[in-house]
Amino acid sequence: YNIRSAPFFPFPIVPFHPLFPCALRSGSMAAEADDPTAASATLEKFRLYETRARFYVIGSSREKRWFRVLKIDRSEPSELHLSEDPVWYSQQEVKSLLQRIAEGNRSTGGLTFVTKAYGIAGCIKFLESYYLILVTKRRQIGCICGHAIYCIDESQMITIPHSSVQTDVATSKNELRYKKLLASVDLTKDFFYSYTYPIMQSLQQNVTSAGMKETPYENLFVWNTFLTEPIRSRCHNALWSVALVHGHFKQVKLSVFGRELNVILISRRSRHFAGTRYLKRGVNDHGKVANDVETEQIVFEEEAGSWKGRMSAIVQMRGSIPLFWSQEAGRLSPKPDIFVQRYDPTYEATKLHFEDLAQRYGQPIIILNLIKTVEKRPREMMLRREFFNAVGYLNQNVPEERKLRFIHWDFHKFAKSKSANVLGVLGGVASEALDLTGFYYSGKPKVQKRRSIQLSRTSTARDVEIRASSGDLPRLSSNADALGSIASQDMRKEDSKHEPLGDAPCYQTGVLRTNCIDCLDRTNVAQYAYGLAALGRQLHAMGLTDVSKIHPDSSIASALMEMYQSMGDALAHQYGGSAAHNTVFPERQGKWKATTQSREFLKSIKRYYSNAYTDGEKQDAINLFLGYFQPQEGKPALWDLDTDYYLHVTTAGDDSYHLSSPHGNNVPGGSGDAMSPRPTLSPVPACKEDFSRMKLTSFDKLIERTCSSIRNVRLHCDADLRPSGGVGTSAMAPDAAYVVLFIHDSWLNLLF
């Protein structure tokens, strides 16, 4: 194997398993010792030195065998000049170099050590000076097939120009306010990265993307694309920066009769149309939706510190309803009115959104819509009907295989029933969706047969041992209520439809897209139900269980519920300002109902306060961090803008993301079929708007905004609908406000 042929992964690759780490450490370390270019894959440790004229960033590989030098000029007050030394230095050579630099600058203060770091998160300019953002402390939170995943414990922003060359602008009130605003984006919360694994991409994409030679910083899930661009463009590589993903990462290890398993839950938040709850709703002109989050569930084996090649993954996503709609954040009501802000007769933005999903994940696109159908005061039901009409319109004159699959289920209406089994119903929907999309499975390597185990409610702590990657032992619950009639079907009868997948790998084509109004609370319950159904099939495919369903009262189901609950709370804090509202999980876990109700009430108060008083500044910080707003002297400041809508539609952005293959959704054979083998399955590169709003800065402004303005209201005409519920042939879309809504007798409408 030629080390130089794999510029980003300097270690041998097992032909069957592109992420197999067995040869990683021995091959990589030996090659690195002999050939310094092998270390060019990743620089993981950095030391920052300064003189009066320059900063010197000394980057080293993990083993500190070889070093590179990055020089940053400090003599320009508002320009960024940096150069990368192409020479690889040994440890002794870099010490000698630093001594010479110190000697040469003795007359101006010499060479001073500033800080150690573990990567550059970005570089940014406000009104005058450039600033360097460093990761100064890291913590490992997981490991995917031998590749470490880190979060940030501490970061530091360092001014690049020397104080002697700065002007008064560098210390102006606006400059300091921009610095404070950027610092409010806390990198120590819910950001994670890896040096050797492209964490911004799904496992399936990493396996099938062979030959990629650049870190995919243009991926929609990399949040510091804008911040790292000044360094990447000047160095023509990504050695010095780390690609940060925003969302949630959780890893749990399972020991099933001595067989080690890892279950990983990853949520990746899109940087497009990103923001807070009431300030980012619906879709923008480019088809990007608010609160767009991809969730991946990975399962792989672990034995004696190495993986035997079997792994599986499933991807689902959530996102705001892809229509032009909004809610007023300034109202005192905790449930503001919903307004469809723009009349889009051909649903062009909605079409762009689903075309983007098809490009990312393949076909089919399955939509699970959980919003209300019956309300005393029409709010959600307006969007439900409009969304239904949009899907019907887009499905006209489209081949059957490309039609959107729309499932509507009123979550709240069904959950009110005392005998309701919400998870059972959602599990049925999940099973149907999995039949259509399939899931990724690496195939079975040729290893000795092992005894398969059925995980049921009778599993004991001795049978299934669960431990979190952080070292904390999750408390397992086995006191959940029995399933209702829908979910208590015979597992073995259900499993007869799912035969073992055999030796060949299979791939996911298509995706389940779940939404409610906020895509937080109800959506998270639905995603757990999907994850549980998928986990059963994943374990069955890997030969670990006899059936493809996991009993909802088993220990492994309880552990998975805790993972999804943690994920839901994290995503709700990011978008809504509080933990996720949830009564289904606490009820299943046997928690006291009165305690649950009091907690939900406190969450409502916290979410309301965040939405009404702090989300404006939070949105400004996100726009600054992502580069949607770039300050300029003499131009209006970010906090003086009445709206940020145009910031999110002036550029479409580049999305280098496709689940199925590098060429989009052209997956041979569809879901469940093996893709044709590639000559070499190499790992991919190491990782290194909205509508007019007034920012609420005082209670007086909040009161002023409670007076609602007159708005155009469009009334729905039932003549636009066919008796069967389909959409008429007229190109004009039905309107968004309704006087009469006819409810179907069934609580679940499946429109395929």
TrEMBL record:
Alphabetized UniProt keyword annotations: Hydrolase, Membrane
Q: How does it sit in the membrane?
A: Peripheral membrane protein
Instruction: Give an example GO molecular function.
Output: phosphatidylinositol-3,5-bisphosphate 5-phosphatase activity
Q: Which domain of life is it from?
A: Eukaryota
Keyword check for Membrane: yes
Q: List, for all copies, the residue spans of the domain called SAC.
A: 182-577
Q: Which Pfam families match?
A: Syja_N
Record field: catalytic activity: a 1,2-diacyl-sn-glycero-3-phospho-(1D-myo-inositol-3,5-bisphosphate) + H2O = a 1,2-diacyl-sn-glycero-3-phospho-(1D-myo-inositol-3-phosphate) + phosphate
Q: Which GO terms describe its cellular component?
A: vacuolar membrane
A single GO BP: phosphatidylinositol dephosphorylation
Instruction: List locations, semicolon-separated.
Output: Vacuole membrane
Which parts of this chain are annotated as the region Disordered?
659-680
Does the keyword Methyltransferase belong to this entry? no
The subunit structure is: Component of the PI(3,5)P2 regulatory complex at least composed of ATG18, SAC/FIG4, FAB1 and VAC14.
This protein is called what?
A: SAC domain-containing protein
